[in-house]
Amino acid sequence: MNSNYAVYRANITRTVTNITNGVEISMTTTDSVTLEHMKSMFAQKQTKVSPNSLIKTERALLSNGIKLTITSTDSAIIKLIQDRAAVAKSGAFGGGMNGK
Q1: 8 A C-beta contact, residue 77 and residue 55
Q2: Is the dihedral of CA 100, 21, 48, 6 positive or negative?
Q3: Which pLDDT value is given to residue 3?
Q4: Distance (Å, rounded) from C-alpha 23 to C-alpha 78?
Q5: CA distance 20 to 100
Q6: What is the 3-state secondary structure of the chain?
Q7: Pairwise pLDDT comparison (59 vs 48), residue with the higher score
Q8: Is the pLDDT of residue 97 over 60?
Q9: Distance (Å, whole) CA 1 – CA 53
Q10: Integer Cα distance of 37 and 96 in angstroms
Q11: Which candidate, 85, 96, 97, places its Cα nearest to that of 39?
Q12: How far is CA 39 from CA 18, 21, 29, 88, in A?
């Protein structure tokens, strides 16, 4: 784990919004060092493809952070996505900014 993980995490505001087919997760910051780290992680994860063909992840770079939109067409998967996002403490599903 990155030794600065706790510092980065403390500087990030995470907002989860349920949408009809999944969730939107915004992670924003006012700290310039944390923002640069988030942009670096965003670039690394742009090509990551979900191993589950029932889940689609879109990543968007914001001026102050990133936004993930995680969706599915399967109602059971949508519920799992929403439930997991609601209880996670950071990142997409609680594993920092990389969503692990």
Answers
A1: yes
A2: negative
A3: 57
A4: 8
A5: 23
A6: CCCCHHHHHHCCEEEEEEECCEEEEEEECCCHHHHHHHHHHHHHHCCCCCCCCCCEEEEEEECCEEEEEEECCCHHHHHHHHHHHHHCCCCCCCCHHHCC
A7: 59
A8: no
A9: 28
A10: 12
A11: 97
A12: 24, 26, 11, 21
Q: Which two tokens stand for residue 57?
A: 């992840």
Per-residue pLDDT of 52-71, as tens digits, reads 789 998 999 999 999 999 99
Terminal alpha carbon distance of the chain: 12
Q: Which two tokens stand for residue 49?
A: 């493809």
pTM as predicted: 0.78
Give the pair of three-digit tokens for residue 11. 């500087």
Tokens 């505001």 correspond to: 13
